Amino acid sequence: MTGPLLSVRDVTIAYEVGTLDIVAVSKARFDVPQGSIVGLVGESGCGKTTMARALTRVIADNARIADGQMQFDGQDIVSLSERDMNALRWRAIAFIPQSAMNSLDPVYRVEYQIMEVLRDRGGMSKSAARKRAFELFEMVGIDPGRLRDFPHQFSGGMRQRVAIALALALQPRLVVADEPVTALDVIIQRQILDQLRNLQRELGLSVILVTHDISVVAYICDRTVVMYAGKVVEDCDTATLLSEPLHPYTMGLKNAFPDLQSAGSGVLTPIAGSPPDLASPPSGCRFAARCPFALDQCRTDEPPLIEGAPGHFVACHRVSEAPALREDAKMPATWGTAA
């Protein structure tokens, strides 16, 4: 097929909390090209994990996909029956959770858990499943002799590799990884990210990587979708996003993590304030209260997601002024005067 493997169009996801209907993701739009790694980045609570979990339709009981389409290989995930959706899970779309220990049953050996997936979901015989389990452990760099171990006998990094092996068990086309390295130290983080990138290239996978760490995005992602307060505010290839961001929030994220290739002072500039309460989101741009470049229009009129440059989508009223704003955004004093 041609075109992206996944197209998300105007997806809105809401949570019912008491008498409130809280919209955690609002009219999200982005594509996942075939054979690429796409990062979903933003602060905690921006909606990225909710969006990622919706792709497998495994969301909280009080959540619902209220609107929009998610076209995967020509099928709209939103409108599929539960039976048809279940046929896609693990076989076509797999999920790597944030906490591998919580996703593994502590009372069963890892071999049993992998073989259970291969036999129940993949229809393999016992001997074929065992052979495949060996292959999966070798694929993720673990000695197959450790298949008989229990989850608690593995280190955090090795448990994450087991979670990756489980996700790849039935050779899916799309893997959704939710903060897969957050709980690991930086050395192990790099090993896991390298492993994921190598497997993605070898197997031709498409990957959605959810993270709050823009340095992880810079290291591994081909394309990046920036979310803020439930909205997609910027979306383009990662190299362009890091060199020529068009949205002030992305400019601020860049300032908040170290540039290891720069000989600058190394001073990090935080974005003051907190994201808005999604139970009662503000009018206009949701970043306006923290944005040093906000105009009156930004506080009243919501900016649409437009193509600010070829292949570069952004939701900002001042996109035409982005080059000048980028220069101002480099100065810490700029962010100290945010509204």
Q: Would you write up a description of this structure?
A:
The chain is of the alpha/beta class. The protein has a domain of 93 residues. It is 33% helix and 23% strand. The protein is built from 13 helices and 12 strands. Strands 6-7-8-3-9-10-12-11 form an 8-stranded mixed beta sheet, with helices on both faces. Helix 5 packs across helix 6, helix 6 packs parallel to helix 7 and helix 10 runs parallel beside helix 12. The model has no long low-confidence stretch (mean pLDDT 91).
Properties at a glance:
single chain, 339 residues, eight-stranded mixed beta sheet, four-stranded antiparallel beta sheet
Oligomer: single chain
Enumerate the strands of the largest sheet in spatial order, edge to edge or round the barrel: 6-7-8-3-9-10-12-11
The rough form would be described as globular
Mean pLDDT: 91
Largest sheet: 8 strands, mixed
Give the SSE layout.
Layout (H helix, E strand, L loop, with lengths): L5 E12 L2 E13 L4 E5 L6 H7 L8 E10 L2 E2 L5 H7 L4 E4 L3 H4 L6 H12 L4 H14 L16 H12 L6 E5 L7 H18 L2 E6 L2 H7 L2 E6 L2 E7 H6 L4 H8 L40 H5 L5 E4 L2 E3 L7 H8 L2 H5 L3
Parallel strand pairs: 3-8, 3-9, 6-7, 7-8
Antiparallel strand pairs: 1-2, 1-4, 4-5, 9-10, 10-12, 11-12
Helix pairs in contact: 4-5, 5-6, 6-7, 10-12
Task: Briefly characterize the structure.
By secondary structure, the protein is α/β, with parallel strands linked by helices. Helix content is 33%, strand content 23%. α4 crosses α5.
